[in-house]
Amino acid sequence: MLKEYLAISMFFIVALLIPVAVIFISRLVAPKKTTPEKEEVYECGVDTVGDTWIRFKTSYFLYALVFVVFDVETVFLYPWAVQFQQLGTFAFVEMFIFIAILVVGFWYAWKEGALEWK
Amino acid sequence: MNFSLLSSEMLAAGLGTGLLILGLIAPKTENRRGFGYITAFGLLAVLVATFFQYGINQSTFHELWIVDDYSVFMKQVFIVAAILVVLSAVDFVETLPRFRGEFFALIVYALLGMMVMASANDLITIYVGLELMTITFFVLVAYQLGDGRSSEAGIKYLILGSVSSAVLLYGMSILYGLTGTTTIPEMLTKLTWSPILVVAIVMLIGGFGFKISLVPFHMWSPDIYEGAPTPITAFLAVASKAAGFAVMVRVFLLGLPLEGAVDWMLLISLLAGITMVIGNVVAIPQTNIKRMLAYSSVAQAGYMIAGLMSMDAPGVKGILFYSMIYVVANVGAFTVATLVRRALDTDTIADYAGLGQRQPLLASTLTICLLSLAGIPPLSGFVGKFYIFQAVMDKGILWPAFVGFVMSMISVYYYLNVALYMWRDDPKDDRPVPVPGPAKLVIVLSLVVTVVLGVYPGPLGELATMAAKSLF
Amino acid sequence: MTVGLTHFLILGTILFSLGLYTVFAKRSAIAILMGIELMLNAVNVNLIAFNRYVAPESHIGQIFSVFVIVVAAAEVAVGLALVISIYRDRISTNVDDLDWLKW
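ok -> structure tokens follow
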């Protein structure tokens, strides 16, 4: 019992040491020259523009809303799928009714333009 | 599994979804007036269907779902309320900028939630029905886009309503922990006294008390009632409250034991007394008709919950009968408020001056409905109060009847105050107050029913008696 | 020391109290919604713990909590939509600014 834990703790210590060592060694070895390029938030890639605290368009929110609702509704699908063999045809039909209702909701969201980027 | 027990709910669900689909198919230019009529006729069909469910008294789905006469009667109360509200809203929805068809679909879904609550025999079913109703109401209360007061009322209702459901749910989880079951009749056999049970019961009373706006959980109602679109205020005030009663009566009378130290009745009767007093007293200084009706509905909740004190069929009969009366009278009053608001753009009671000269029909309906709520004989409100307090007095508990009587007398003051403005004063200007067809139907119906049931309460009383007996 | 029912119930109570505190103390509508979620999750902890320790032969508690999760998602979706709608009107999500209707 204790032996197994010992192995794990060895792993843990090594895993902890390596990143610390890497950071420390690079601090020692690396030359320290700052250029304006290096002061950027992202050194490579597109230049950052403006403030971090900007407002997001509410369109993001609409996507998120539709996603969350459908995502959570699928919670009901898991127990159904696990017990599918025992439940039989009846539950199969039942789940189709459930999904049909969801599809009506999805159709509504689509038609009302929740999925369009405005 | 007996699916015929679900027939009326399936019809209602089909109606709601059908309306949603219809709204997607119908051209955008169509003004959605027809949707109101379709909804009203569909609900009428559901109402007819419920009549075939009397006398079944069965439960299905492992006791999750029960159809007894009590639940059928309650469902009819909700459906009647929904039909009246839909008819009174047909002209109202034309003032909405968008989403007119969905308005009716949402009303049907809220109704579906209430129907589920009435038939629920299990905590899970109760919770799902309750939330279906409440979440739909969050949307409906905030329905008037662009009117800041409506969305403010919506978010207040959302926050307070969600907190109250969370508290209720915590109480339910404790009940489940104590018994290992969520079925209400089974709970009764397994519950014994323990300190934690008291906590659970207090939480249940808090949660349900919020829905039926018992003092001290009533603080939300005047704000929400004022901010919400008036037809929705009517629906919220009558149907959601009746649904709360439907569940509360079932859970408390059939699910919680009343022996030894578990004296939840003491708490309930205390709250009933406070509710009657506070509701009526605070209603007096109100100047906004919707706020006044809100406090009056708080007081009405007090009268109704007093019926629970008798713990027997006559008391429940009183609650059932009174719910129906209360629905009709309140929807009548709120419909008048909707029409006046639409024509004169005001909810202030003083602006009702001269309504008797402008529109005698509206003024007399409002007067009759308010007097019925006050419990003046021979109107139906008196009969309802009589049933409730007689049942309680038969059990030897006299004080609720006394408090109820005194408070009714006080309520006459603020109800008559409105009548005085309407009949005594002259109108401030000569703008007409039009009464469109469907709303006129609602107003005439509520006027006639309020008077007729007062004089001749027999048939409805018998139906309520039968329904109440099925509980015991 | 084994972890038993009591520990779960204490966890549930703490979560519930934190949620309730958030609802009353926070001024931002979004934070209040988070508090409500916390309260509902406390209920879920309770339900699952009771299911495991009180009535392990049935799955009522688990079924209940699945329903709670789904309903909570619907509630929050509607709640955020309302927050957006009121934000468009007032440019604020602070509940203290919601004073057009007197409390």
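The mean pLDDT of chain B is 89.
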